[in-house]
Every structure is written in C-alpha cells, then in structure tokens.
C-alpha cells in the first residue's frame, strides 16, 4: 500500500477524527491561557472562541488533512497517541487561525 493510500485511509477514520476534535478543544483552552504577546494571539483567540463554542466538529474535519499528513501520525496510523495528535494539531493552529 502506498503512503498516500495510508493517509487517505486515516482521513476516513472516526477514531482519528475524535482524537483531533479533543486536541482542538485542548488547543483552544491553551490559547485562552497564553500570553497576549504570542504572535498571532488575536487571531488565535478569535479562532479558539469560534471553534470551542460552535464549530468543534467541523473544524476537526478541516484539520484532518494537516494532522494525518504529520509524519508521526501517519506512521502510527490508528495507534497514534494523544500526544502525537496534539502535537500535530498545535503545529498547524496558526494556519487556520487567520
């Protein structure tokens, strides 16, 4: 099976999507607590407010490609740990918080 087939298969995984949803909520909570001097903080805070209050599930869907393309997540597949998923989410928040 090709790497691309593996990635596409993970895209369909409800297990991975559930982990991404929880990781997003944790990222939102962390943004609430971060220093206002963090680069892109205003956009991150706006993104976190919208995500945590109304769009958690749909935002997780938007994040899926970025998360599963992460080398550690792709290599672990369905066995990806909470920490691997969280790191993948945290690494791309600024791409979505615009």
Q: Estimate the global geometry from the Cα principal axes.
A: elongated
Write down how many β-strands occur, each being a DSSP E stretch of 2 or more residues.
0
- The domain count comes to 1
Helix content: over 70%
Main β-sheet description = none
The number of helices is 5
Beta-strand content estimate? under 5%
Structural class of the secondary elements? Answer: mainly alpha
Order of helices and strands: HHHHH
- Euclidean distance between termini CA atoms: 36 Å
Question: What ranges have pLDDT less than 50 throughout 5 or more consecutive residues?
Answer: none
Computed Rg: 13 Å
* Mean residue pLDDT: 94
Task: Give a written overview of the molecule.
- The mean pLDDT is 94.
- The protein is mainly α and 98 residues long.
- Helix 2 (14-33) packs antiparallel against helix 3.
- The protein contains five helices and no strands.
- Helix content is 80%, strand content 0%.
- The termini are far apart.
- It has helices at 3-11, 14-33, 41-68, 71-76, 82-96.
- The radius of gyration is 13 Å and the shape is elongated.
- It has one domain.
Q: Quick gist of this model?
A:
It contains five helices and no strands.
Chart the SSEs and their pairings.
Layout: H1 3-11, H2 14-33, H3 41-68, H4 71-76, H5 82-96
